[in-house]
């Protein structure tokens, strides 16, 4: 591939950074913080553990958002036109653009930055949602242990926290769809 000012060889790095941002940010804090609360509840009221797992499940959904956008970004990536694929595996999974030459190499840096923005939007929204779910999950399950009427309120707050991650996924999907020429 010939390198010009519009097609640097480091362009795919930004796509991979978008994938890493989408996958690694978000759900871990929510799961850990809610897990601490569930552990505290389990020592005093083991019968409430199953109902108290809702925050951990909702944190796991944020991880799925990151996985979805990471798979979409990885599906958009392909070797530059004019290069030989490194393995014979590419002969089976190459997109049409590689085989036909329909894609312009000058769009690679644009696509890479759009992938980065897409991954960051999902990842950072996942951080906000994971933080919210973790704090609410920890305090909510501890309060639920003492007063069962707070359960519905806790679930509603968790839903509103989860929506933050969903908004990031929607923005990430829009950005990813705009990365295609």
Describe the overall structure.
This protein is an all-alpha fold. The protein is built from seven helices and no strands. It has helices spanning 11-24, 27-44, 54-76, 90-93, 96-100, 108-146, 150-178. The longest helix is centred in the C-terminal third of the chain and has 39 residues, at 108-146. The protein is elongated, with a radius of gyration of 21 Å. The two termini are 19 Å apart. Keywords: Hydrogen ion transport, Ion transport, Membrane, Transmembrane, Transmembrane helix, Transport, Vacuole. It comes from Aspergillus ruber (strain CBS 135680). Residues 17-73, 116-175 form the V-ATPase proteolipid subunit C-like domain.
Descriptive keywords:
73% helix, transport, V-type proton ATPase proteolipid subunit, mainly alpha, 7 helices, F/V-ATP_Csub_sf, Four Helix Bundle (Hemerythrin (Met), subunit A), 181 residues, 0% strand
Topology summary:
Elements: H1 11-24, H2 27-44, H3 54-76, H4 90-93, H5 96-100, H6 108-146, H7 150-178
Keywords: Hydrogen ion transport, Ion transport, Membrane, Transmembrane, Transmembrane helix, Transport, Vacuole
Pfam families: ATP-synt_C (PF00137)
Transmembrane segments: 12-32, 53-75, 113-138, 150-175
């Amino acid at each position: 591939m010939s390198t010009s000012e519009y097609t640097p060889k480091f362009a795919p790095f930004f796509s991979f950074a978008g994938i890493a941002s989408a996958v690694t940010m978000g759900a871990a804090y929510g799961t850990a913080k809610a897990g601490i609360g569930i552990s505290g509840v389990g020592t005093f009221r083991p019968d409430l553990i199953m109902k108290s797992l809702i925050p951990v499940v909702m944190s796991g959904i944020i991880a799925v958002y990151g996985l979805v956008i990471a798979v979409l970004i990885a599906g958009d990536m392909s070797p530059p036109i004019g290069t030989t694929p490194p393995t014979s595996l590419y002969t089976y999974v190459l997109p049409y653009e590689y085989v036909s030459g329909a894609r312009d190499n000058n769009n690679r840096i644009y696509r890479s930055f759009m992938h980065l923005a897409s991954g960051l939007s999902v990842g950072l929204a996942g951080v906000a949602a994971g933080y919210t779910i973790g704090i609410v999950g920890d305090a909510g399950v501890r309060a639920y242990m003492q007063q069962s009427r707070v359960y519905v309120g806790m679930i509603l707050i968790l839903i509103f926290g989860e929506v933050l991650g969903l908004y990031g996924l929607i923005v990430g999907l829009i950005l990813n769809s705009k990365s295609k020429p």
